[in-house]
Specification:
By secondary structure, the protein is of the alpha/beta class. The protein is 46% helix and 18% strand. The protein contains 14 helices and twelve strands. A hairpin with a 2-residue loop joins strand 1 and strand 2. The chain is globular. It binds nicotinamide-adenine-dinucleotide. The site of nicotinamide-adenine-dinucleotide has 24 residues, from helix 7 and strand 7.
Length: 410
């Protein structure tokens, strides 16, 4: 199933519960605008490579559109369109004053030098600077992009439009970034995992978990949950998975990954495959890497009774149905990884006021927003006897629908 079709399945399950009419569904699903551009970069003295870049702006009924920018070889229009729609539902679940968008370039950033990556980013901004900005659509980091890339985006955008750091979030702290933005998505995954455990009447000590992906999101989630006394028995990245049944020393893994840039060669754990990690007998499984890692073919091997979707779209609709029937609790991506966009919102709000918050305030406000979002979804799931995913979509769709109605768009 293609990416956008998959997000539509989840949307329709909630829309059925809400008895939403077909024409309204079509309106809510159709992106406002899709932009595809060529991004030519001079790789050597005499070789121009033409990359393709995308920005999909899905919906702005609740505010300016917001969403990350992904540099990855698997980026295509369908995937960006799906991720843009997810952003609309995510900002609505978190009740942030935003709509949803997403962008990306089909590229393997590991194959480019830093200079080439900077060129690629700047040329992309040259191509799309007039369709994004502080009051229309605000990009942020996603897979393959980081604070440095956001600083290049700001610098290039400001050449056309003048000083306005609110044009992009996830910037370095020295460049009007928010303290706590880098950790925010992983920290949010941690906060929500604890909330879910609390609701299920379980305590963190003795809870065993496995995390796939040790980039920005996975590594910060791992740190937060290890510090909360959970036992992390496996972590992984593209190089493979590293397993220790009695629990890995996460701070040691972090030091290693930081110094090497990867977990490859990590010795203080047995090496297993990423597929074996997904099938481990743990209490909680956290996919925090790429989409579609749990699907019809491997869902039978999943043994964890709880899955926290730190990545976007890690569970496809077929697998999701099987997991629900088996009683597996899935905390859906549009809630589980909303911590990143929440602190991006704080960064944007600070930039608009040219004012700075301290880390304590950022963390407190993050906890507050995610708690409210979790409670709204938990309540809706109980009231309507649905999965947490369907409930999260119901909360989001109702909020977007109401915004459209109040604005006279329906
Ligand atoms: P990242 O690029 O920092 O890290 C990705 C990690 O996944 C790396 O450890 C990489 O080695 C690993 N990986 C890549 N391909 C893999 C594979 N085939 N098998 C196993 N591991 C693999 O990216 P990130 O920012 O941590 O994003 C991870 C996920 O979280 C993505 O789905 C992204 O859309 C989602 N997300 C990120 C943010 C954010 O703020 N960064 C916010 C919301 C959602």
């Amino acid at each position: 199933m293609k990416a956008f079709e998959a997000t539509r399945v989840f949307f329709d399950e909630a829309a059925d519960q809400l008895e939403l009419a077909d024409d309204v569904r079509q309106l809510m699903l159709t992106p406002k605008r899709e932009v595809q551009v060529q991004v030519p970069v001079l790789l050597d003295d005499d070789y121009i490579k033409t990359f393709i870049g995308y920005r999909v702006q899905h919906d702005n009924s609740r505010g300016p559109m917001k969403g990350g920018l992904r540099f990855h070889p698997a980026v295509d229009l369908d995937e960006v369109r799906a991720l843009a729609a997810l952003m609309t539902w995510k900002t609505a679940v978190a009740n942030l004053p935003y709509g949803g968008a997403k962008g990306g370039i089909t590229v393997n950033p590991a194959e480019l030098t830093s200079k080439q990556l900077e060129m690629l980013t700047r040329v992309f901004v040259d191509q799309i600077h007039d369709v994004f900005g502080p009051r229309t659509d605000i990009p942020a980091p996603d897979m393959g992009t980081d604070a440095m890339v956001m600083a290049w985006i700001r610098n290039q955008w400001e050449k056309y439009h003048g000083f306005n750091p609110a044009c992009v979030t996830g910037k370095p702290v020295e460049h009007y970034g928010a303290v706590g933005r880098e950790e925010a998505t992983g920290r949010g995954v941690g906060i929500l995992t604890l909330k879910l455990l609390g609701r299920l009447g379980r305590k963190p000590p003795g809870t065993r978990l496995a995390i796939q992906g040790f980039g920005n999101v996975g590594s910060h989630a791992a740190k937060f949950l290890a510090d909360a006394d959970m036992t992390i028995v496996a972590v992984s990245d593209i190089s493979g998975a590293y397993h220790c049944p009695t629990g890995l020393d996460i701070h040691d893994c972090l030091r290693y990954a930081m110094s090497q840039g990867t977990l490859q060669g990590y010795q203080n754990g047995d090496m297993i495959s990423n597929n074996e990690l997904l099938a481990l007998d743990v209490d909680i499984l956290i996919p925090a890497a790429i989409g579609d890692v749990i699907h019809a073919k491997n869902v039978g091997q999943i043994r964890a009774p709880i899955i926290i979707e730190a990545a976007n779209r890690p569970v496809d609709p077929e697998a999701d149905k099987v997991l629900y029937e088996q009683g597996v609790i899935v905390l859906p991506d549009i809630l589980a990884n909303a911590g990143g966009v929440t602190v991006s919102y704080f960064e944007w709000a600070q930039n608009l006021q040219l004012y700075k918050w301290n880390l304590n305030r950022v963390r407190q406000e993050l906890d507050h927003i995610l708690s409210d979002a979790f409670e709204a979804v938990w309540q809706c799931a109980n009231d309507s006897q649905t999965s947490l995913r369907t409930a999260a979509y119901m909360v989001a769709i109702e909020r977007v629908h109401r915004a459209k109605s109040l604005a006279g768009m329906l």
